[in-house]
Amino acid sequence: MLRGLDPILSPDLIYALRAMGHGDTITIADANFPAESSGPEVVRLDGISATDVLRAVMSVMPLDTYVDAPAHVMQVVDAPDTIPEVVKEFQQIINDVADAPAQIKGLERFDFYDNARKFFRRCADRRNPAVWQYHFEKGRDWQLKMKALLTQ
Annotated catalytic sites, by residue? Predict the structure, then answer.
Protein backbone atom coordinates (compact mmCIF):
# COMPACT_ATOMS: atom_id res chain seq x y z
CA MET A 1 0.00 0.00 0.00
CA LEU A 2 1.23 3.48 -0.86
CA ARG A 3 0.09 6.47 1.17
CA GLY A 4 -0.44 10.00 -0.06
CA LEU A 5 -1.13 9.06 -3.67
CA ASP A 6 -4.33 9.95 -5.47
CA PRO A 7 -6.25 6.68 -6.19
CA ILE A 8 -6.61 7.75 -9.84
CA LEU A 9 -2.89 7.03 -10.15
CA SER A 10 -3.32 3.40 -11.20
CA PRO A 11 -0.33 1.03 -11.27
CA ASP A 12 -0.06 1.50 -15.05
CA LEU A 13 -0.16 5.29 -14.78
CA ILE A 14 2.36 5.37 -11.91
CA TYR A 15 4.65 3.09 -13.94
CA ALA A 16 4.33 5.36 -17.00
CA LEU A 17 5.02 8.53 -15.01
CA ARG A 18 7.98 6.95 -13.22
CA ALA A 19 9.46 5.62 -16.47
CA MET A 20 9.33 9.05 -18.11
CA GLY A 21 12.60 10.96 -18.31
CA HIS A 22 13.19 14.70 -18.20
CA GLY A 23 11.49 16.29 -21.19
CA ASP A 24 9.29 13.27 -21.96
CA THR A 25 5.67 14.20 -22.55
CA ILE A 26 2.39 12.56 -21.64
CA THR A 27 -0.92 13.17 -23.42
CA ILE A 28 -4.22 13.19 -21.54
CA ALA A 29 -7.03 12.71 -24.06
CA ASP A 30 -10.75 12.03 -24.43
CA ALA A 31 -12.65 9.24 -26.20
CA ASN A 32 -12.49 11.03 -29.57
CA PHE A 33 -8.69 11.24 -29.66
CA PRO A 34 -7.02 8.54 -31.81
CA ALA A 35 -4.88 7.32 -28.90
CA GLU A 36 -4.54 3.69 -29.99
CA SER A 37 -3.40 4.59 -33.51
CA SER A 38 -1.04 7.32 -32.24
CA GLY A 39 1.39 4.85 -30.70
CA PRO A 40 1.68 1.61 -28.75
CA GLU A 41 1.56 2.92 -25.18
CA VAL A 42 -1.91 3.91 -23.95
CA VAL A 43 -2.99 3.99 -20.31
CA ARG A 44 -6.77 3.54 -20.18
CA LEU A 45 -8.62 5.80 -17.73
CA ASP A 46 -12.22 5.00 -18.62
CA GLY A 47 -14.85 7.06 -16.84
CA ILE A 48 -12.44 9.39 -15.02
CA SER A 49 -12.78 13.12 -15.67
CA ALA A 50 -9.93 14.97 -17.36
CA THR A 51 -9.70 17.45 -14.52
CA ASP A 52 -9.35 14.64 -11.97
CA VAL A 53 -6.64 12.98 -14.09
CA LEU A 54 -4.73 16.24 -14.41
CA ARG A 55 -4.95 16.99 -10.68
CA ALA A 56 -3.64 13.48 -9.89
CA VAL A 57 -0.80 13.68 -12.43
CA MET A 58 0.24 17.18 -11.33
CA SER A 59 0.32 15.98 -7.71
CA VAL A 60 3.36 13.83 -8.54
CA MET A 61 4.81 15.10 -11.84
CA PRO A 62 6.61 18.43 -12.14
CA LEU A 63 6.23 20.43 -15.33
CA ASP A 64 9.41 21.08 -17.28
CA THR A 65 10.86 24.50 -16.45
CA TYR A 66 13.46 24.37 -19.23
CA VAL A 67 10.97 24.86 -22.08
CA ASP A 68 8.74 27.80 -22.93
CA ALA A 69 5.51 25.78 -22.95
CA PRO A 70 5.40 22.48 -21.02
CA ALA A 71 1.59 22.27 -21.32
CA HIS A 72 -0.37 22.19 -24.59
CA VAL A 73 -4.02 21.88 -25.56
CA MET A 74 -5.49 21.09 -28.95
CA GLN A 75 -7.09 24.28 -30.28
CA VAL A 76 -10.75 24.41 -31.21
CA VAL A 77 -11.00 23.66 -34.94
CA ASP A 78 -11.92 26.80 -36.93
CA ALA A 79 -11.80 28.90 -33.72
CA PRO A 80 -8.19 28.77 -32.45
CA ASP A 81 -8.61 31.75 -30.12
CA THR A 82 -11.61 30.21 -28.33
CA ILE A 83 -10.81 29.03 -24.80
CA PRO A 84 -13.33 26.36 -23.72
CA GLU A 85 -14.38 26.19 -20.08
CA VAL A 86 -12.50 22.91 -19.53
CA VAL A 87 -9.26 24.59 -20.65
CA LYS A 88 -9.85 27.31 -18.05
CA GLU A 89 -10.38 24.57 -15.45
CA PHE A 90 -7.14 22.87 -16.50
CA GLN A 91 -5.26 26.15 -16.25
CA GLN A 92 -6.63 26.69 -12.75
CA ILE A 93 -5.52 23.19 -11.69
CA ILE A 94 -2.03 23.85 -13.07
CA ASN A 95 -1.94 27.17 -11.21
CA ASP A 96 -3.07 25.50 -7.96
CA VAL A 97 -1.19 22.17 -8.05
CA ALA A 98 1.88 22.36 -10.30
CA ASP A 99 5.30 23.00 -8.75
CA ALA A 100 6.05 25.53 -11.49
CA PRO A 101 2.75 26.74 -12.97
CA ALA A 102 2.81 27.48 -16.70
CA GLN A 103 0.34 28.82 -19.23
CA ILE A 104 -1.29 26.23 -21.48
CA LYS A 105 -0.38 26.88 -25.11
CA GLY A 106 -2.70 25.96 -27.97
CA LEU A 107 -1.66 23.75 -30.87
CA GLU A 108 -3.47 23.30 -34.17
CA ARG A 109 -5.29 19.95 -34.37
CA PHE A 110 -2.94 18.14 -36.76
CA ASP A 111 0.19 19.57 -35.11
CA PHE A 112 -1.20 18.23 -31.83
CA TYR A 113 -1.77 14.78 -33.39
CA ASP A 114 1.73 14.75 -34.90
CA ASN A 115 3.28 15.67 -31.56
CA ALA A 116 1.28 13.00 -29.71
CA ARG A 117 2.76 10.28 -31.90
CA LYS A 118 6.23 11.20 -30.59
CA PHE A 119 5.30 11.31 -26.92
CA PHE A 120 6.09 8.79 -24.22
CA ARG A 121 2.55 7.80 -23.20
CA ARG A 122 -1.04 8.62 -23.92
CA CYS A 123 -3.81 8.40 -21.31
CA ALA A 124 -7.24 7.92 -22.84
CA ASP A 125 -10.81 7.73 -21.59
CA ARG A 126 -12.56 5.59 -24.20
CA ARG A 127 -16.08 6.27 -22.84
CA ASN A 128 -16.12 10.02 -22.25
CA PRO A 129 -16.64 11.94 -25.51
CA ALA A 130 -16.05 15.41 -24.04
CA VAL A 131 -13.39 17.30 -25.98
CA TRP A 132 -10.10 17.48 -24.05
CA GLN A 133 -6.63 16.72 -25.32
CA TYR A 134 -3.52 17.93 -23.50
CA HIS A 135 0.25 17.34 -23.53
CA PHE A 136 2.40 17.76 -20.40
CA GLU A 137 6.19 17.71 -20.41
CA LYS A 138 7.93 16.21 -17.38
CA GLY A 139 10.42 18.31 -15.44
CA ARG A 140 13.51 17.42 -13.45
CA ASP A 141 12.34 17.10 -9.82
CA TRP A 142 10.45 13.78 -10.10
CA GLN A 143 12.67 11.78 -7.72
CA LEU A 144 12.45 14.45 -5.02
CA LYS A 145 8.66 14.67 -5.30
CA MET A 146 8.16 10.87 -5.21
CA LYS A 147 10.56 10.51 -2.28
CA ALA A 148 8.62 13.15 -0.33
CA LEU A 149 5.31 11.39 -1.06
CA LEU A 150 6.57 7.95 -0.13
CA THR A 151 8.04 9.10 3.18
CA GLN A 152 4.85 10.79 4.40
Answer: 22, 64, 113
